[in-house]
Amino acid sequence: MTTIEETTPVPSPRDAGADGGPLLDVRDLHVEFHTREGVVKAVNGVNYSVAAGETLAVLGESGSGKSVTAQAIMGILDMPPGKIPQGEIRFRGQDMLAMSAEERRKIRGSRIAMIFQDALSSLNPVLTVGYQLGEMFRVHQGMSKKDAKAKAIELMDRVKIPAAAARVNDYPHQFSGGMRQRIMIAMALALEPELIIADEPTTALDVTVQAQVMDLLAELQREFNMGLILITHDLGVVADVADKIAVMYAGRIVEQAPVHELYKRPAHPYTRGLLDSIPRLDQKGQELYAIKGLPPNLLRVPSGCAFNPRCPKAQDICTTEIPRLFPVTEQDGTPVTGRTSACHFWKETIHG
Amino acid sequence: MAELSKNDEPQDVTPNVSKVELADAHSEAESVAAVEAPVGRGEPILQVRNLKKHFPLTQGILFKRQIGAVKAVDGISFDLHQGETLGIVGESGCGKSTVAKLLMNLERATAGEVFYKGQDITKLSGRALTAVRRNIQMVFQDPYTSLNPRMTVGDIIGEPFDIHPEVAPKGDRRRRVRELLDVVGLNPEYINRYPHQFSGGQRQRIGIARGLALNPEIIICDEPVSALDVSVQAQVINLMEALQDEFNLSYIFIAHDLSIVRHISDRVGVMYLGRMAEIGTDEQIYEHPTHPYTQALLSAVPVPDPDAREHRERIILSGDVPSPANPPSGCRFRTRCWKAQDKCAEQEPLLAVPERFKGQDSPAAHESACHFAEEKDVVGAA
Ligand SMILES: Nc1ncnc2c1ncn2[C@@H]1O[C@H](COP(=O)(O)OP(=O)(O)OP(=O)(O)O)[C@@H](O)[C@H]1O
Ligand SMILES: Nc1ncnc2c1ncn2[C@@H]1O[C@H](COP(=O)(O)OP(=O)(O)OP(=O)(O)O)[C@@H](O)[C@H]1O
Ligand code: SF4
Ligand code: SF4
Ligand SMILES: [Mg+2]
Ligand SMILES: [Mg+2]
């Protein structure tokens, strides 16, 4: 059964949404949290889009607002203390921020589903896993208890939980971290949504299961032409599955690029720092490269470019002027499709 | 002490004096610690022998009947030396976290022993256990559920001092907590915040700060950097290595990222379904694996370079992971192994240097639990 094979290249991005536009389009999204200490500016103008069948990977510093952006898209931000002072989130052309709570609830779970970063706390500890999986079918599709349970077992099988039928009545704490994550994936896939937001879906998984899970996600994505937003720290996984990448820092997208492009020649100093931090074989016994300094305090985001206190390329202009997202071009000025960089010195970074 | 280059940070961060403080506290309390023991060759500080944990499987609501057991850990032995890092890798559900909890005595072993400096800690309880626990600390896998949502970060990191007040006198605690925050790269100003106000990665660093609070000798790290971005991961790994050099700490480092395990580990153990499949130095395991499972694991590593990835040979393990409640007879890997023969179903392969490599001065001569152990040319991806 075990096969040994050459890996095949990733297929190119598939067609866009039915109406030609993107499936999801986030425009100039801002999210802030009002706390006792002040206003935490967690998301400061995020723009990204995903087409049906496309995979967008979101990379970035921990604390840079990846999950908060995802929560805003899902409509599950705690408000208050959270607040969305500005921005649009268009799903199939419609701004979800302008919808009623009822309309949003209909979309959530059945048309847009999320796989959460924290599998254990997203599962109810006092209900069996089978019950929680079955709930999706009972509530959204009015299935009988018996049918829902059968469906739950089928889903558990699909995400490769061994002896699914025997374990369907187990509680979340009885499963390993990786298994809980797969159960979360099963839950998100249950209603065959159009868009899946996976927040570090494989963080808790070992490489073989990770490969299986990503293959599974890719397979279902192809089958249903789903859009996928994949939030991850794992640059290896990104290289394997993504069509395009958005890199976040301090609540902004600082660079966007097709997957091959980004690895070959980053156009933002933060991205370069990230790529240089990957442990390499020849670094054994040495200190790893790490971007110096601390992540920004979001109560007081540095003026100008938020990365300037840590940036090796910073100049005076970086402390005074916020760099907009510049379109990235070749040295001779020919545009590179899908590439942008929020750095005053993107040219020097990519070509220098 | 290696620099974390945090000192280049602008004004709002106090100078990094904390490591010196840690050193003082440590040498005071642990004046006997063997400082000059070379990494990897020190005395065994922890000896694990035939360790087992079986969780009962029950049926029925009112009258629970045991209908079997999940054999999460089923006979594991290894040594951990002073100042050494032992990496543990293996498939999700193979029992890594359970091993970690057993070593901490957070779960009671079904059978087997864990000797800490010669003393079997699986038999300890009460004060004797508390005393040992001070020296064995843990950093947990899940930064969400391991932090109490109703406690401030300062209280969480300072909590170990309640149980061990000798480490930090009451009046000194907040200062120590601030230092620990700084050591793990969190802004000391955050001391009064609650866990939900932090990102996943930031929470993981809170867990590490707490693990360091009591200046332990052994830190068991269960996926300590899995939730972190690569640059923060690099900072934490550098920090852990620096602390290790300074205090001769021993680490058990559980992770699924094989390249990070390779970077930090002196030796690596590969687990499969509650058992150790192969164990050796990082070079032996990564360059000269002889167990088919290790070979498959290494070949599945995603490579962070889209071009290099396209022509790699990949061993794709299909077939389900067998249930730990009912593991296969003989070799547990046989249901997914492409080399399995009749012998594999009949005889359980023991973890030992394979007969054919015995006495050889070859990197293939390390412990591997396979009847047909041999080298295979897999891409050394990690
Ligand atoms: N309820 C809240 N109150 C105050 N600040 C918050 C709240 N929720 C999130 N934040 C802050 O918002 C920022 C973004 O958090 P988010 O969880 O989106 O980070 P992330 O990019 O997903 O990080 P990670 O990779 O570590 O998961 C963080 O700095 C966090 O401290
Ligand atoms: N309290 C429990 N009751 C019953 N079974 C349990 C319990 N805790 C763990 N198990 C089972 O023991 C096995 C090993 O779990 P463990 O958490 O040690 O795996 P792991 O190797 O850490 O996996 P991961 O990489 O996914 O974290 C799993 O099959 C799990 O379902
Ligand atoms: S704008 Fe300036 S500080 Fe920001 S990344 Fe570019 S060079 Fe660095
Ligand atoms: S003992 Fe047999 S089944 Fe087990 S790993 Fe070796 S060859 Fe494969
Ligand atoms: Mg997150
Ligand atoms: Mg675990």
Q: Which characteristics define this entry?
A:
heterodimer, A: 352 residues, alpha/beta, 8-stranded mixed β-sheet, 4-stranded antiparallel β-sheet, 13 helices, B: 382 residues, 2 domains, 11 helices, disordered N terminus, binds adenosine-5'-triphosphate, binds iron/sulfur cluster, binds magnesium ion
- Write down the oligomeric state: heterodimer
Overall shape of chain A: it is globular
> Which fold name is given in CATH as the topology of the largest domain in chain B?
Rossmann fold
User: DSSP strand (E) fraction of chain B?
Assistant: 15-25%
How many domains, in number, for the residues of chain B?
2
Greatest interface (CB-CB under 8 A), with counts per chain: A-B, 79 and 85 residues
Task: Explain what this protein looks like in three dimensions.
- Chain A: Its main location: membrane.
- The complex is a heterodimer of chains A (352) and B (382).
- Chain A has 352 residues and is an alpha/beta fold.
- Helix content of chain A is 32%, strand content 24%.
- In chain A, the strands form two sheets. An eight-stranded mixed β-sheet of chain A has the order 7-8-9-4-10-11-13-12, sandwiched between helices. In chain A, strands 3-2-5-6 form a four-stranded antiparallel β-sheet, with helices on one face.
- In chain A, helix 4 (129-141) crosses helix 5 (145-158).
- Chain A is globular.
- The termini of chain A are far apart.
- Residues 5-18 of chain A have low confidence and may be disordered.
- The relative contact order of chain B is 0.14.
- Chain B has eleven helices and twelve strands.
- Chain B has helices at residues 18-29, 96-103, 126-133, 153-163, 173-183, 200-212, 230-247, 258-264, 282-287, 292-299, 342-346; strands spanning 44-59, 65-81, 85-90, 111-116, 119-120, 136-139, 218-222, 250-254, 267-272, 275-281, 313-316, 367-368.
- The chains are: A alpha/beta (352), B alpha/beta (382).
- The complex binds adenosine-5'-triphosphate (ATP) (2 copies), iron/sulfur cluster (2 copies) and magnesium ion (2 copies).
- One adenosine-5'-triphosphate sits between chains B (55, 70, 72, 92-98, 141, 324) and A (173-179, 204, 206).
